[in-house]
Amino acid sequence: MAALSASVACAAGPTAPPELRRWLGPQDWERDTAAPVVGLGEPGAFDDTHVFAPCVASEGGPFRMWYCGSTGAVAERVFHLGLATSGDGKVFQRAATSPVYSFGDGKHSVLTPALLRSADGAVLRDGERLRMWFCSTDFSVVGGPHTLHETFSTDGVHWSAPSKPLLEHVYAPTILQEGAAYRMWYVDVSSEPWILRYAESGDGSRWAVRPEPVLTLDQDWEKARLFYPTVVKADGAYLMWYGSYWREQPDKTAIGFAVSLDGWRWYKHPQNPVLRPDPARPWESHYTTSQSVLRLADGSWRMWYASRKKPPFTNMYFAINTARWRGPDKAELPASLVLDPQRLAAKPGRAAFAAWQEETRAGLRRMLGIPSDRVALEPESRGQAELGDIVVEKWVYTSEPGSRVPAVLYRPRKAEGRLPAVVLTFGHGGSKSQPSYQYIGQLYARLGIVCLAADPIGEEERHRTAQRGTRAHDPYPVHRQAWDAGRPIMGKLVFDTLRGVDLLLTRSDVAPNHIGVAGNSLGGAKAGWMAVLDGRLSFAIVSGWAFADVVLRSKHCTSAPNERMREGLRWDEYLALAAPKCALLVMNGTADVIIDRDADGSAWSETRRAVASAERVYAALGRPGGIECWFEPRGGHRPYPAHRAALKWLARHASPDGLTEERLAALPDLHFGDWARKHGIQFEALYGTPLHLRGATVVDMGIAPLASLAVLKPEEVGRPEFTLEGWLKRIAGAKEH
Fold first, then answer.
1. From edge to edge, which strands make up the β-sheet containing 287-295?
2. Average pLDDT score over residue span 182-191
3. Secondary element (H or E) of residue 654
4. Are 3 and 554 in contact (CB under 8 A)?
5. N or C: which end of the chain has fewer CB within 10 A?
6. Cα separation of 398 and 503, whole Å?
């Protein structure tokens, strides 16, 4: 495992995940033309002084290249959009109608055109129309803003008037549509040095910018600025070619390369730059950049890029050229030997697996910043209440120095012997009083399972004003502060859950060999981490989560540690860390677009493959069927731990005496939305829909919500030992010392 570091934005090639490393071999680009494919226009033409920023596409016919051209002095230049066509991508002819597009006011330039494309780089039409974004600025205004605009065309020649600005400080975008999501990589020109950012949209017009840059200046060859990202997806990997000034040769630019699993965390080529100026070709001796890249039908790649000659020059952008790369080595990566079922069947193989499991778990704990020492819990009872046939206990206990946890514990009022127990883990904004988790806690207790529900850091009584649904740990500055202190938010959430297991192990009514976790959404992510890291667990329900690279595009608390984990592990290897002791059930709805962000089912197909591979490990270690998937057709983001399928699984793997197939068969189902209406419960707008919570099915045991689950005294609310702010201050101080 890679060691924990402060940076989560970009990593060098050697640390890239195994699936990406074949893309970091040599890139031998062959220049296969004897001259530029597009040069300067004839004197007096709109492009007689500058040509750059080719945007090349083919819709099953000739290649078409839209490019930017201008005339006149550099300070007075106004770029328009030209068009050229080619049968082979190497010999282009200007369209008689060029230029085909102008901003229309005689001042603003049309710069860096980007067509809407699918992930593989193919053109996507919006209905019958081409959709193109471009950047614009008025070069006569020193320091004037660069703004993003869009335009539409049915034929590529006649385009609609430019839209109003969609986003500021944007230059050279690439825009791909994956499922319902529009994904944009672009240059942020708001300040020096220029860096590359990522934004996402549901309609291509309203953009949400990720606060963390995706690429910054951090390789020795890069100087002053990064620019012109071109992104395409191939064989499950995101590929980016980008430009920078060349530190060793200050009057030159070159093209670098990076690769990513998710489009957020990028691994740069160790041999960058991969396409450099060629001193033997005067028209591109000093400048290669503003490129367009396509994968051809034979699997090779072709790049079109702008160039310029050595100084002195009056033409900042002199010509457009092309080169071809045959692509990386196509050899498949071998399967992980440590997960080879045949090797695991023998004692040496099992010993090797156990050693790998121990070493890998230790590395993941270090990455998550989980403390190696555990202080005394100092549990303090705050009373209890009887609720029919169950008891609700209230507790406060210590997680770590300066961090105390309020919690409730549901248990059967009458029980003989030791019972199985579970720690509930909550989704974003969830806490012990949230209706769906109250429901699960009471349901489990009535079925003979002790259930601990503790407020997560930043929520309910661990919020400075005791508010619910705050998502206080979500903002980027909070994530950054915790990560830089060596204590990622996910690590804190997992560690507090570990301490919940510690608390259960102190109880005389809990069976120590039958303790598990169950969670939904963010709680599913936490439950997954618990299953692979805590060797004491015997079962885990992971609901509303996926073991697929799509989750690398989730919120910072989940994406950052998973990105780091993926540098050393595949998803099936990650899941296999739970084998064979911890039985694992992965539950989702096939229409859960909260997790399956692209709404194309890829999250579930990848999860199924990872689970199937991990199941072979479970079987080889003597526990066939120890991990399995369950999917509700057309189900959304729902509280599946309360679904009948989850309870049947618990009957087999958690061993509660009161939970049998016969008893379950006698219990009716209930629509969660009906239950909420009956009790006057309002759901959040995002989740309170028939697709999600309102349409969920749960097992009915006559459960009613509790009015209050407050554990703390009024004067304790907001004390540092209970709050996110208090914990952040303490870990920052610990880092300084």
1. 287-295, 301-308, 319-325
2. 97
3. none
4. no
5. C
6. 10
If you count them, how many residues does the chain have? 737
The sign one gets for the Cα dihedral 438, 440, 442, 445 is negative
Instruction: Pick the more confident residue, 654 or 295.
Output: 295
3-class SS of residue 282: helix
**Alpha carbons 255 and 301: distance in angstroms, whole number:** 15
Distance CA 167, CA 73 (A): 28
239 near 257, Cβ under 8 Å? yes
Contact between 273 and 246 (Cβ < 8 Å)? yes
Domains of the chain in sequence order: 15-325 (2.115.10.20), 349-736 (3.40.50.1820)
**474 and 428 in contact (C-beta within 8 Å)?**
yes
- By DSSP bridging, strand 167-168 and strand 147-153 are antiparallel
DSSP-derived secondary structure letter, 14: G
Residue 511: the pLDDT is 96
Look at residue 332 in the predicted model and tell me its pLDDT.
Answer: 63
- C-alpha 488/C-alpha 373 separation (Å) is 17
List for the chain the helix, strand, coil content (%; round to 5): 25, 30, 45
**Cβ neighbours around 44 below 10 Å, total:** 7
Q: Which two tokens stand for residue 149?
A: 């605009």
What is the residue-averaged pLDDT of the chain? 94
Question: For residues 135 and 190, is the Cβ–Cβ distance under 8 A?
Answer: no
- Return the half-sphere exposure (C-beta side, CA atoms, 13 A cut-off) of residue 288: 25
Average of pLDDT values for 218-238?
96
* Amino acid sitting at position 98: S
Q: Are 583 and 653 in contact (CB under 8 A)?
A: yes
Q: Would you call 37 helix, strand, or coil by DSSP?
A: coil
Encode 514-538 in three state secondary structure: EEEEEEECHHHHHHHHHHHHCCCCC
Residue whose C-alpha is closest to residue 11's, from 569, 564, 568, 570: 564
Rg of the Cα atoms in the chain:
29
Q: Where are the alpha helices (DSSP H) in 536-643?
A: 556-566, 571-576, 602-620
Cβ neighbors of 401 (< 8 A, separation 6 or more) are: 375, 730
Q: What pLDDT, in 10s, does the model give residues 129-153?
A: 999 999 999 998 888 899 999 999 9
* 445 in Cβ contact with 438 (< 8 Å): no
Q: For the segment 464-486, what is each residue's pLDDT rounded down to a tens digit?
A: 999 999 999 999 999 999 999 99
- CB burial of residue 281 (10 Å; 0-12, 13-18, 19+): middle
Q: How confident is the model at residue 528 (pLDDT cuts 50, 70, 90)?
A: very high
Decide: residue 449, CB within 10 A, 0-12 exposed, 13-18 middle, 19+ buried.
buried
Share of the chain above pLDDT 90, in %: 87
